[in-house]
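Here is a complete protein record:
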Amino acid sequence: MTKLFDYNLTGTGWAEVTLSDETQSVTFEVSYLSDPLSELYEGLYRLTQNQSDKEIIVFADEPGEHSLIIAKQDYLNLEIELYKNDEWEELSTAMTSTKGNKELIYSDKDTLQNFISKICDGTDNLLKRLTLSEYKKLWSQYDFPIEIYGKIRQPKLLT
């Protein structure tokens, strides 16, 4: 079960992400070439609304990327996998290929509710460190995904 999600802007156009459970932890860099926080919240929303059973969130780096795959096992349970790739893939390829040249660096099972809770906790901590205008200044091309974040934070979303 997911214990920690941390998303920290480390400089203009750069972030550091940490994902941990009881036995493993992985930390990696992300560049502004993608907007994974927005994509993560959009994907989680689609999962909660039964609009999809699998979401792939690409965290671009320079060079390479990490692909977070969140797949529903049933209504309440998820399988979570994080793959590292030293090269960029076209988004269409990333959406259809889960293995390829990727290296599995994190694997977990969780409930949808707990995973969303940990993602929101990490985002709450980010917002304690930065205002929305500071976020925009550091992340440069993208605003903080306030609208979808608000939808996910709704307490009755999973009931």
Q: What stands out?
A: Strands lie at 4-11, 14-20, 25-31, 54-60, 65-72, 77-85, 103-111. The chain has one domain: 4-152. The longest helix spans residues 112-129. Residues 4-152 form a domain with the Secreted effector protein pipB2 fold fold (CATH 3.30.2450).
